[in-house]
Amino acid sequence: MDHKHHCVPLNDGHFIPILGFGTYGTAEVPKSEAEKATKIAIDAGYRHIDAAYLYENEEEVGRAIRSKIADGTVKREDIFYTSKLWITFLRPELVRPALEKSLKKLQLDYVDLYIMHFPSALKPGEDLFPKDENGKTIFNTVDLRATWEALEKCKDAGLTKSIGVSNFNHKQLERILNKPGLKYKPVCNQVESHPYLSQKKLLDFCKSKHIVLVAYSPLGSHRDLRWVDQNSPRLLDDPVLCDIAKKHKRTPALIALRYQIQRGVVVLAKSFNEKRIRENMQVFDFQLTPEDMKVLDGVNRNLRYVNYDFAIGHPEYPFTEEY
Ligand code: A2P
Fold first, then answer.
1. How far apart are CA 255 and CA 244, in angstroms?
2. What is the tens place of the pLDDT at every residue in 56-92?
3. CATH of domain 14-231+263-273
4. What is the Cα Rg of the chain in Å?
5. Can you give the residue ranges of every domain in the chain?
6. Is 55 a catalytic residue?
7. 208: burial class by Cβ within 10 Å (0-12, 13-18, 19+)?
8. Which of 78, 144, 222, 313 has the largest count of CB atoms under 10 Å?
9. Is the Cβ–Cβ distance between 255 and 296 less than 8 Å?
């Protein structure tokens, strides 16, 4: 598989591989698993690694990347590495130090993409989820356009090649796009998307603005107790998805990944299991028919697995808008 043939152009002249490797492990998973899995993923041909300060494993993921550079499997420029600015660092003066902290953990000179993880700022400090004495999350007010200007400066300083956002609704995106003196547009908006949450309107909006939509939880999420309602239906058990999978002699997971690629969405496949890491690369080995795509569009039920409940009530909570 030549990854160069599976890239999507970004609006700033860079390219992003359409399949990315997700590195988020739930709290129970030892951090060393992320290191092992990232090495396996690079060996299997993944060149796009999606990570975040929040995941608290950038040291391990960075070590995996550097070891694959050291053993000659890849060069730094072959890898597209995304990190995310956590929301306790959205104040403009905290942006560059936050990116530098990630780079120090990674022991890399630059990231390829740095994105705001979520639009709702929390109280600055070391605590990732600051709470008051009653256990209530402590919100902070930050002008996202000022945060954006700080990201633009990180790009100009060469600490990141591209800048973007995650979990923004179209109004929040528009606010950035309409900012007086905007220097760089966001290259992407990374959001939850899968056949139960197709994000059709947000995708159309992003396409019209040359912003790439990146899908996280394309397989229906990790179903982590702390983040996901355990009563929600399991995407990979969906009968329509299973029928299409049977027809193509592939797994429902591969159908869900292929669905995104064929609608021009960059897709992040997370697995820490060698067999599934390798299986997910088969997304390039088959095609869905236009009829399959239509049927898959039809299973949408606007079901969001990951709601970021702790931010509900924040003035910048993104998911109260239709899209
Ligand atoms: P695992 O690491 O055990 O493979 P996502 O968050 O991207 O929607 O993924 C949800 C979960 O799906 C992951 O935690 C991952 O668990 C699992 N997974 C990844 N690839 C596959 C696959 N090919 N088939 C079934 N499950 C998969």
1. 7
2. 999 999 999 999 999 999 999 999 999 999 999 999 9
3. 3.20.20.100
4. 19
5. 14-231+263-273
6. yes
7. exposed
8. 144
9. yes
Q: Tokens representing 52?
A: 């975040």
- Model-level pTM? 0.97
Residue whose CB lies within 8 A of the most ligand 1 atoms, among 214, 265, 271, 281, for a mutation test: 271
Q: How many CA atoms lie within 13 A of 122 on its CB side?
A: 22
Minimum-distance ligand 1 atom for the alpha carbon of 22: 7
Answer for the pair 170, 205: CB distance below 8 angstroms, yes or no. yes
Q: What is the DSSP string of 208-267?
A: HTT-EEEEESTTS----TTTS-TTSPPGGG-HHHHHHHHHHTS-HHHHHHHHHHHTT-EE
Which helix (H) or strand (E) segment holds residue 116: the answer is strand 111-116
* 194 within 8 A of 215, measured Cβ to Cβ: yes
Q: Using N-to-C axis directions, what is the helix angle for 92-106 and 58-70, rounded to 10°?
A: 50
**Is 126 exposed, middle or buried (CB count within 10 Å of its CB: 0-12, 13-18, 19+)?**
exposed
Tell me what pLDDT residue 226 has: 87
